[in-house]
Design goal:
By secondary structure, this protein is of the alpha+beta class. It has one domain. It is built from 5 helices and 8 strands. Strands 3-5-6 form a 3-stranded antiparallel sheet, with helices on one face. The two termini are about 35 Å apart.
């Protein structure tokens, strides 16, 4: 059984002559995710929704060509009321599976440090689209479904963090549908 290391912060609230200690636990990845959790990550400084949710194939290939990247990915838009719901479901499933590892890392990480995690959905399921270059001469952009994604977490200090970004990635050796 693995042991989880927990960072505890003690705060004293002074009222007159009485000091009441309050113990708060810093948590990077929570046990329960609120409905707008991914938006909260965006508000903290992330850019998953802005750059990697609801992009069309044309937008992906344009970004691939204009920014000189090897690959760009997008989660599908879920529509109203919360377009990032599908992305959030995928991302939270990934980080929840590594909650203890991420929380232990955040408890000891300096503010600004980042850590990236790569995931393959199990069983393999399409979670988004990714644009890459084909092997033609000259190479041309191609867009395919993928079942793999990356999550990059940034520590903010005190055992806290936020998702800096997450995006679908080329499947590599994964057998995606």
């Amino acid at each position: 059984m693995s042991r989880s290391r927990t960072l505890l912060t003690t705060v004293a609230i002074v009222t007159g002559l009485l000091a009441l200690p309050i113990t708060a636990q810093a948590v990077c990845i929570p046990n329960n995710f609120p409905a707008n959790w991914l938006q909260q990550q965006e508000n903290a400084g992330g850019h998953t929704i802005a750059r990697h949710v609801g992009q069309t194939d044309m937008q992906l290939t344009t970004r691939l060509q204009n920014q000189g990247l090897n690959a760009v990915g997008s989660y599908p838009s879920s529509g109203a009321p919360y377009p990032a719901a599908a992305a959030q479901a995928t991302i939270t499933a990934g980080v929840a599976a590594n909650r203890n590892v991420i929380n232990n890392w955040a408890a000891n990480a300096n503010a600004g440090a980042t850590m990236a995690y790569n995931y393959v959905t199990a069983p393999p399921a399409t979670i988004g689209r990714v644009a890459t270059w084909n092997n033609a001469n000259p190479p041309a952009p191609v867009v395919n479904n993928t079942c793999t994604f990356r999550v990059v977490v940034r520590a903010t200090g005190g055992g806290n963090c936020y998702v800096l970004t997450s995006f679908p990635t080329p499947p590599g050796g994964a057998a995606c549908p």
